């Protein structure tokens, strides 16, 4: 009995083992093909402009491009945009005009603020003196580093007093009067920083920040325009150079040139002393008293300051003396 039960049990075990082996063999023999990476969910997306259909786009693609068809410009402003070229140019032009107008307005406000600061400083720190009988006489007198200056051009320029004996080099290159910056000219006078900046922009960029509202002269003639330094060296390649291109001979008169070809007064004086020791030196033409190359040209600045006929209303009619 036990033998028959053992045989049945062994038969069931063998049948189950054979089923398990067949199932394993089927799993090992199965081969799966490589499908590659997953496809994108979008394909052949097109941009339809002005509500055109797909057939119209295919016809336009095969036909020649029409000259009257609008062109498009891509613009990245926080996000990518596609703008019509005509609208883009109009917006760009209006934006540039607005920026220029804002710059002019700020420049005018800055100039008025500097003039008001200078006038307020003059009224608060002025020492009363006897009024002058001449109507065209300066209304204010300022002392900067021991040098007396007259306030002219509505506060745009400080001119040394006629009796001042200090050389031009004694004037500080940059002086602050009442919080307003002034630059030294070649004659030893002082010019407001705003006037110097406007002059440099008009000559270099060809535009004035104040535009039509500026009361200064904007006539840039050949006599007022400096020579091109690169043209003098034979290396100017700018076809629209704003500076003057002119040939000059060695016999042309030269004024204020810092090149070695100029005959300096000190060299001529030493040569004269060797030939005639009894002659005295000319102290006024010493090199120590000469202006530096980075000083402002007073003759060029006069064209941008304007006439002195109408003074600024912020300055009183009395003659004052300011010492600081």
From TrEMBL:
<feature type="zinc finger region" description="C3H1-type">
    <location>
        <begin position="222"/>
        <end position="248"/>
    </location>
</feature>
<feature type="domain" description="C3H1-type">
    <location>
        <begin position="222"/>
        <end position="248"/>
    </location>
</feature>
<dbReference type="GO" id="GO:0005634">
    <property type="term" value="C:nucleus"/>
</dbReference>
<feature type="region of interest" description="Disordered">
    <location>
        <begin position="92"/>
        <end position="115"/>
    </location>
</feature>
<feature type="region of interest" description="Disordered">
    <location>
        <begin position="268"/>
        <end position="299"/>
    </location>
</feature>
<keyword id="KW-0862">Zinc</keyword>
<dbReference type="GO" id="GO:0008270">
    <property type="term" value="F:zinc ion binding"/>
</dbReference>
<feature type="compositionally biased region" description="Acidic residues">
    <location>
        <begin position="278"/>
        <end position="299"/>
    </location>
</feature>
<dbReference type="InterPro" id="IPR000571">
    <property type="entry name" value="Znf_CCCH"/>
</dbReference>
<keyword id="KW-0863">Zinc-finger</keyword>
<keyword id="KW-0479">Metal-binding</keyword>
<protein>
    <recommendedName>
        <fullName>C3H1-type domain-containing protein</fullName>
    </recommendedName>
</protein>
